[in-house]
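Checklist before submission:
- one chain only
- standard amino acids only
- sequence pasted in full

Submission:
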Amino acid sequence: MDERRTVKVSKYLSKHLRHQPERIGLTLDEGGWVEIDALIAAATAHGFRFTREELDHVVAANDKQRFAIEGSRIRASQGHSIDVDLGLAPATPPPYLYHGTVARNLDAIRSAGLKPMNRHDVHLSADRETATRVGARRGRPLVLSVDTGAMHRDGHVFHVSANGVWLTKAVPPEYLRFPESH
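Returned file contents:
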């Protein structure tokens, strides 16, 4: 499977497992799971064919491990804009986590902090390299440090997804450390 096809199938899965399952006639369970056979059949019925082998390749090859397979079911690991309960237990974060963004967002972040926008949670990375890659999707990346140790002590709840993305409802500005040059 070539890289272009891998990306195309991955984006299709993200759209329909995170945001618009109903668009192809899927109904996810409360945890965001759907039977793989139902997903493949729905995609085929709506003009986007892929095989189980291609699906397995996309899941295994995805550097961010965006999808999880459990038995005969699949779901997106996080990033949903639809209502799902990933069943993640609260977790104690490391002292600092990181968030990748771009300069044009800094004024809003300085005043309101990090908000989930069209998702359920703010996504934080365990290392600067990952946060840099996340920010680079929108332009020249800037990495913010988040004082998650202080947030946790102050009662903010954190979860960590199966693929290592840290999730929290919001990050107030007082917990953020901005790059020196901005």
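Reviewer check: The chain has a mean pLDDT of 93.
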